[in-house]
Design goal:
five-stranded parallel beta sheet; TIM Barrel; 10 strands; 553 residues
């Protein structure tokens, strides 16, 4: 005789009686990704979950509960606020301001010309110099950017992709200039080019050639900077473009799988590169879904590395994760509301087991953050780390019927979508035919429609609106002379370099690119010969061409 579900009597009696008096406020409840939410979760909802093999213990496979046994009981997560505007000197000043106020790791945004491999004096670059990030043209710029920052003590993350191979080389050169031993050079470069084609659109070369450059950096870093992370696979940008949590998981893990398998095809042992891949997640508004997303991500990645590609080293199975609160959730209207949004999202990231965290500033919806706003964002993390005891217990939500059920569902749904991508040939093929872009576009459109129909809410925008509100713009002013100064410095460096050495170095870069040789040794020689970001990227443009994306619809 079968035993009826645990909650059956409750649904038939207590719940039914209650609904007669107090009907549900809406017909159905779902996560932000559209997964149904039941009235109640009980042991029946986790009966197929094995507490040992599926959940496990912290620091042990499958790492559902975190990649370290102690997690934040040993030390809190790294506070890694992003900075980047104007010239290298401007951003260096912001670095030091953040470190003085308790930041424990650095993160850098670059301006649009640098992201697209154009020097500041290129005609298309001039209007964008230093506007959305720091302008970097030469090795001297990176020296100034990192001036006074001990790179053997402070790790730095670079958010750059198409031209990442050049910036990695420049970072290595600056670290060596500080006499940092190879095995003590730490840090991360985003270098996740695949998400550019699906979300951010800051690419240069065709996808296959761009992935080749990513693998070049992976192979090079494994040999020369064994503690450096040459790739941080980003779910953040697809999510900001409109992907839901399931899509963020599937496409991000798919990108990581692509980089690893392409390295394996080249003959690089998986256990040489997989431990040095990290991940970057968006923490959105659905509190429990975001917690479960991080738990599901660790478990699925561990299984992919161990069982799909055959990694033997447990470090290859461990997902190391940075998180950032959702920029797309910020509002220009009632911007103080953003402080509350960010705090709640940050709490979800911590409870989900992130290892480093950026909390958005309240004014980021409309400008480069002011010093006052960014200090509040840092203090938000410090309150969580020091006041609220949330760092004192590892994975405190483990065993919750809802959390474990939702973790499972997110893993299952994202794996199903990922297998669709792999069945189509993989990430590159699914980008080239627009499959992933269509998935994200459809999700974005559905969410926008839900906002317009008030099935989803943004306080201060489509509900609790203040019609008399004046948007509190206190504009962050960039120095109007920064572009001229940056161009002058770049041209001065060009005029002083050894022309023969510079020309010979760029020929070596071309030779490596044409002959399918790892480009990084030649790139680093070109950097030492004072070649600029734009000059090195132009060589690759000539060899690989530039990419024109397909029409999605």
């Amino acid at each position: 005789m079968s035993v009826p579900p645990f909650s059956a009597d409750w649904e038939r009696t207590t719940l039914a009686d209650s609904l007669k008096r107090m009907p549900r406020r809406q017909e159905e409840f779902t996560t932000l990704s559209g997964l149904p939410i039941a009235d109640l979760y009980t042991p029946d909802d986790v009966k197929n979950i094995n507490p040992i093999s599926d959940i496990g213990l912290p620091g042990q496979y499958p790492f559902t509960r975190g990649v370290h046994a102690t997690m934040h009981r040993a030390r809190p997560w790294t506070i890694r606020q992003v900075a980047g505007f104007g010239t290298a000197e401007d951003t260096n000043g912001r670095y030091k301001y953040l470190l003085d106020h308790g930041e424990t790791g650095l993160s850098t945004d670059f301006d649009l010309p640098t992201l697209l491999g154009r020097d500041s004096d290129h005609p298309v670059a001039i209007p964008e110099i230093g506007r959305i990030g720091v302008a970097i043209d030469t090795l001297e710029d990176v020296r100034l950017l990192m001036d006074g920052i001990p790179l053997d003590q402070v790790s730095t993350s670079y958010t750059i992709n198409a031209s990442a191979f050049v910036l990695i080389g420049m970072y290595e050169a600056v670290a060596k200039g500080q006499n940092v031993p190879d095995n003590l050079i730490t840090g991360t470069c985003q270098n996740d080019i695949l998400k550019e084609y699906t979300a951010q659109n800051e690419y240069i070369y065709p996808p296959r050639e761009a992935v080749r450059l990513v693998v070049d950096t992976m192979e090079y870093a494994a040999k020369t900077m064994p503690r450096y992370n040459p790739v941080s696979v980003s779910g953040y940008h697809p999510r900001e473009a409109g992907a839901n949590a399931v899509q963020e998981l599937a496409f991000t893990l798919g990108a990581g799988h692509c980089y690893v398998t392409e390295a394996i095809k080249r003959g690089i042992p998986v256990d040489q590169v997989a431990p040095r891949i990290s991940f970057f997640w968006d923490i959105h508004n659905d509190f429990f879904e975001e917690i479960c997303k991080l738990r599901a991500a660790r478990r699925l990645w561990a299984r992919m590395m161990r069982d799909w590609v055959g990694a033997k080293d447990p470090r290859s199975w461990m997902m190391r994760a940075h998180s950032q609160t959702a920029g797309v959730s910020l509002t220009a209207q009632q911007p103080d509301n953003n402080i509350a949004r960010t705090a709640i999202q940050a709490l979800a990231a911590v409870l989900g087991g992130t290892q480093s965290l950026h909390t958005n500033s309240k004014d980021e919806a409309y400008q480069i953050p002011s010093e006052g706003a960014i200090k509040i964002a840092v203090r938000t993390q410090q309150i969580l780390a020091l006041e609220n005891r949330v760092a004192d217990i590892v994975d405190p939500l483990a065993g919750s019927y809802y959390v474990e059920n939702l973790t499972n569902r997110l893993e299952e749904e994202s794996e199903s979508l990922l297998r669709q991508v792999l069945d189509r040939g993989g990430m590159i093929e699914s980008i080239e035919d627009g499959f992933i872009q269509r998935q994200i576009a459809d999700s974005s459109a559905a969410y926008q429609k839900a906002l317009e129909e008030k099935r989803e809410f943004i306080v201060g925008v489509n509900v609790n609106v203040d019609p008399e509100e004046e948007l509190p713009f206190e504009p962050f002013e960039l120095d109007p002379g920064l572009g001229e100064r940056q161009i002058k410095r770049t041209r001065s460096i060009r005029s002083l370099r050894n022309a023969a050495e510079h020309s010979a170095a760029l020929k070596e870069v071309r030779h490596a690119a044409v002959n399918n040789i790892n480009t990084m040794p030649a790139v680093t020689r070109a950097i030492r010969a004072s070649a600029t970001v734009g000059e090195i990227c132009d060589v690759m443009r000539d060899v690989f061409g530039e990419y024109n994306a397909p029409l999605v619809y």
